[in-house]
Amino acid sequence: MVAPPTASLSVRELTKRYHAIDAVRGVSFAVAPGEIFGLLGPNGAGKTTIIESVLGLRQSDSGSIFLNGIDAQAQPVQARRAVGAQLQFAALQDKITPRQALKCFAAFYPESTPAEKLLAQFSLTEKADVTFDSLSGGQKQRLFLALALVNQPRLLILDEPTAGLDPQSRRELHGLIRQLKSDGRSVLLSTHSLDEAHQLCDRIGILHTGRLIATGTPDELISRSSTKPRLTFRVAQPLDAAVVGALPAVTARQPHHGGWMISTSDVNRTISGLVQTMAENGNELIDLQIHRPSLEDVFLELTGRDWTHSPSTDPVRD
User: Which residue range(s) make up the domain with 249?
Assistant: First the structure.
């Protein structure tokens, strides 16, 4: 069996069961060179099981996995040489320093990136000789990313790399991930953050109960949605439902925090009609917000479930 020559990672019909539960069911996708591909799904969707199967940490029940054209199941050692990984539950000894950790990891590979270069690249030079347990959450994540690059991998696998980080640390890590792409590396990114997936990923695969139910660029997935744009607004003098429903292009309406939320098939026409109604009645528009369809709307439409209340299906973890 031969993988597509252009794929850094090719997964075909991957299946993994835990007793009677299908944690991953016939999942297929590919990551192209220089691409950030996101596995997007709520906790329990199967993301971690897929990543651990790709890395050989779990044995799949069926399907094939190719890393840089090498059969990862038939030649696991060769396949993993060109792959770096940052796992969700990574840890190091409390008293090891970043410099020591990088040199230790480098010793496992015939070719590696010098520790000093990685320390500088990930803004860890000043923390090179302090103990791991004294690092902040963001510094620890930067160190784990540096460790994933020790062996100069062409493909990087990141499992929830920003989980638990504060907003500033998350932005910094996003910048580092974008730089990896600019350097020509491919990235498989597992995340349950809709905003993170939209900001970082060239393409996204949406996972739900172990199945890959949609793939495409973020904008492609959103454009396929039948969800209408929404407007939320408040006015000085309350409007009754009949007036709101009579605005141009309105397809649905409901009260919302002292005002209204409306769906519209034409944002410009609806806003123009609202402004005209305000002027004709001497009313004042206090607040107006436009809400375009989002990945959350896509997930709700595809699964019938709200993103934040999607059930867990992986009995081990995800």
Answer: 230-292
